[in-house]
């Protein structure tokens, strides 16, 4: 049981590492990568609040929180007023899948989806190569 | 009157002084003078061609739409007689919307008989004649004198009618007055040049490029003289192409040629597909706004135009996605396509999760602090340089040691090198991966390992590595190395 939990957590961490590295590789060039990096930062911050490492970096986290709060507020505003017309359910589903897709126009959303799909394909390929390298 | 200004000059230059032509040119009641029964087919087309500019000049406004329609109908009948596949009907509907453009830029009528009417009507109708083949020019190719005269008339017409043109009018008129001998000689050379540079993909539309722009009008004026001579040269099927290429060659100085060619090619492709006057968006460097053509039978207000632009953009993106997602060629329709895309994205995400589980079972369980180092990767905004030398690779296996300190039964030092090589070389050499961020992705596996590398580097620096103790991780965390936990993507 515990081993399984450990494996589950381990795989979760590896998955997060994969997504974060994917987003970092793209950098700030794409909306989805920016949104993904922000999301990972925030979720990390919440989880690590009481970790000893977080305690060491309280100052940095404070500045991050202030910055994230601003970013969060602007993002919320954007999604509230800029939420484009939802034509059909498929589009909503796509918005949920693509990071940051809530606040995009359909045209921008499709473009980001194309780039996201290519990045995901590459990520899968890389991870399969890594997995094949191990005996 | 504008027409009267031009006509005397034409009369002087016209050596043969064909009375019928000049009378037609003079005659304000041009539609009465022309009749299919009186004149032979060539003359009728000629006169109609020549006089249509007159019609436009002689007060052709909103009221003359009917006359012009009739003219185009006749032209269509003539051309259909020769080529057999022209219907003037589609053009008539467009004319009703083009009254405002009468008398605006006027180019040579010699490109093809339908093009003449286009030139009189203005920009939009020109596009409606794509279905006409170059065979229409055959009847004209056989009459060099007429071609020359018509070209002169047309240039005169453009001088008179294209009031918006600047500066070039004088040049055109002077060239006309100079006489036709040198004209033909130079035109022949130009024709040859045009033939050499002729592109196969260009077909009819010499004047397609945005009629609203004065630069294009200037370019058309420049190309008026060689056009006529090219037609007179007697090229049949490729004449239009040569005309176009010659005109394009003429326009080289303006520097807009590649843009226009591309725009024209794009438009021609579209028109050859639809066979109607459906111009795609035009994007010209000198202007910032986008020219959008209203298709036939569609509303022209700004809202619907913007809506159409948006819809076209979305359809373009959907097509791009269709190429990405495998097995979507047969699916038509946005909803099904979207479902397919969603399924594909979900399957990719599931694959990532499955592979991460596989990797977690392959690797020994990491110490809890490694997770902190991974998080540090996310916290840091900078990225470290991937170490190119293999020394960090040597310490890699130490990073995989479980917490109890035994040396894991992992393959020796060669493993990370193979790993990096295997991970990077397929990506680098793979021709199928053409992503803009590929250089970033080549370091993805290294990034995943890079965290360990950095900390293990610090470990090595602190000389603790040989001990192979789990404390090394703590030390890595506690050290204050400047490159601690930095990641940078090689670019």
TrEMBL record, chain A:
Keyword Transcription attached: yes
InterPro entries: IBH1-like, IBH1_N
Keyword Transcription regulation: yes
GO BP, one annotated term: regulation of DNA-templated transcription
Keyword terms, alphabetized: Transcription, Transcription regulation
Domain IBH1-like N-terminal, first and last residues per copy: 10-42
Highest taxon of the lineage: Eukaryota
Protein name from the UniProt record: IBH1-like N-terminal domain-containing protein
Taxonomic lineage from the root: Eukaryota, Viridiplantae, Streptophyta, Embryophyta, Tracheophyta
TrEMBL record, chain B:
Cited SUPFAM superfamilies: HLH, helix-loop-helix DNA-binding domain (SSF47459)
Residue intervals of the BHLH domain: 298-348
Location(s), subcellular: Nucleus
Chief location of this protein within or outside the cell: nucleus
Region (Disordered): 178-286
One GO CC term, this protein: nucleus
Keywords: DNA-binding, Nucleus, Transcription, Transcription regulation
Pfam family membership, one: HLH
Biased composition, class Basic and acidic residues, residue ranges: 249-286
Residue stretches in coiled coil: none
InterPro entries reported in the protein's UniProt record: bHLH_dom, bHLH_ZIP_TF, HLH_DNA-bd_sf
A molecular function (GO) term: protein dimerization activity
Entry-linked Gene3D superfamilies: Helix-loop-helix DNA-binding domain
Record protein name field: BHLH domain-containing protein
């Amino acid at each position: 049981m515990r081993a399984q939990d450990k494996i589950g957590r381990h795989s979760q961490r590896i998955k997060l590492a994969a997504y974060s590295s994917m987003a970092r590789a793209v950098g700030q060039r794409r909306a989805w990568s920016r949104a993904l990096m922000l999301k990972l930062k925030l979720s990390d911050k919440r989880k690590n609040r009481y970790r000893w490492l977080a305690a060491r970096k309280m100052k940095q986290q404070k500045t991050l929180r202030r910055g994230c709060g601003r970013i969060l507020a602007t993002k919320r505003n954007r999604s509230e007023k800029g939420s484009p017309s939802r034509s059909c359910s498929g589009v909503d589903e796509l918005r949920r899948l693509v990071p940051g897709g809530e606040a995009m126009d359909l045209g921008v959303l499709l473009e980001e989806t194309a780039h996201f799909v290519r990045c995901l394909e590459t990520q899968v390929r890389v991870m399969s190569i890594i997995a094949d390298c191990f005996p | 009157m504008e027409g009267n200004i031009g006509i005397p000059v034409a009369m002087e230059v016209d050596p043969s002084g064909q009375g019928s032509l000049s009378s037609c040119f003079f005659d304000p009641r041009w539609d009465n003078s022309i009749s299919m029964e009186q004149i032979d087919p060539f003359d009728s087309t000629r006169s109609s061609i020549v006089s249509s500019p007159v019609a436009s000049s002689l007060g052709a406004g909103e009221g003359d739409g009917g006359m012009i329609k009739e003219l185009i109908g006749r032209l269509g009948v003539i051309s259909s007689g020769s080529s057999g596949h022209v219907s003037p009907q589609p053009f008539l509907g467009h004319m009703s919307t083009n009254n405002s453009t009468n008398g605006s830029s006027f180019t040579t009528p010699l490109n093809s008989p339908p093009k003449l009417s286009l030139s009189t009507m203005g920009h939009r109708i020109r596009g409606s004649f794509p279905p006409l083949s170059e065979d229409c020019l055959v009847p004209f190719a056989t009459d060099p004198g007429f071609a020359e005269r018509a070209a002169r008339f047309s240039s005169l017409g453009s001088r008179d009618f294209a009031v918006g043109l600047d500066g070039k009018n004088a040049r055109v008129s002077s060239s006309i007055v100079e006489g036709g001998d040198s004209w033909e000689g130079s035109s022949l050379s130009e024709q040859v040049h045009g033939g050499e540079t002729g592109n196969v993909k260009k077909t009819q539309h010499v004047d397609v490029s945005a009629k609203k722009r004065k630069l294009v009008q200037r370019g058309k004026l420049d190309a008026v003289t060689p056009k006529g001579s090219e037609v007179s040269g007697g090229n049949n099927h490729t004449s239009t192409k040569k005309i176009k290429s010659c005109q394009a060659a003429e326009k080289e100085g303006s520097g807009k040629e590649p843009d226009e060619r591309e725009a024209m090619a794009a438009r021609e492709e579209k028109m050859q597909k639809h066979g109607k006057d459906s111009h795609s968006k035009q994007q010209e460097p000198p202007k910032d706004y986008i020219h959008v053509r209203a298709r036939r039978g569609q509303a022209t207000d700004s809202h619907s135009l913007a809506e159409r632009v948006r819809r076209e953009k979305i359809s373009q993106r959907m097509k791009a996605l269709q190429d990405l997602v495998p097995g979507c060629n047969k699916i038509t329709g946005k909803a099904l396509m979207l479902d397919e895309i969603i399924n594909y994205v979900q399957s990719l995400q599931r694959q990532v999760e499955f592979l991460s589980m596989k990797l977690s079972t392959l690797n020994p369980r990491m110490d809890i602090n490694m997770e902190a180092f991974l998080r540090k990767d996310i916290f840091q905004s900078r990225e470290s340089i991937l170490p190119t030398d293999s020394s960090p690779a040597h310490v890699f296996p130490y990073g995989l040691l479980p917490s109890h300190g035994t040396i894991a039964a992992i393959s020796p030092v060669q493993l990370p090198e193979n790993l990096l090589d295997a991970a990077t070389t397929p990506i680098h050499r793979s021709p199928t991966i053409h992503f803009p961020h590929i250089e970033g992705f080549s370091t993805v596996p290294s990034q995943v390992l890079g965290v360990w590398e950095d900390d293990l580097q610090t470990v090595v620096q602190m000389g603790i590595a040989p001990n192979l103790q789990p404390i090394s991780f703590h030390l890595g965390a506690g050290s204050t190395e400047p490159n601690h936990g930095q990641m940078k993507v090689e670019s």
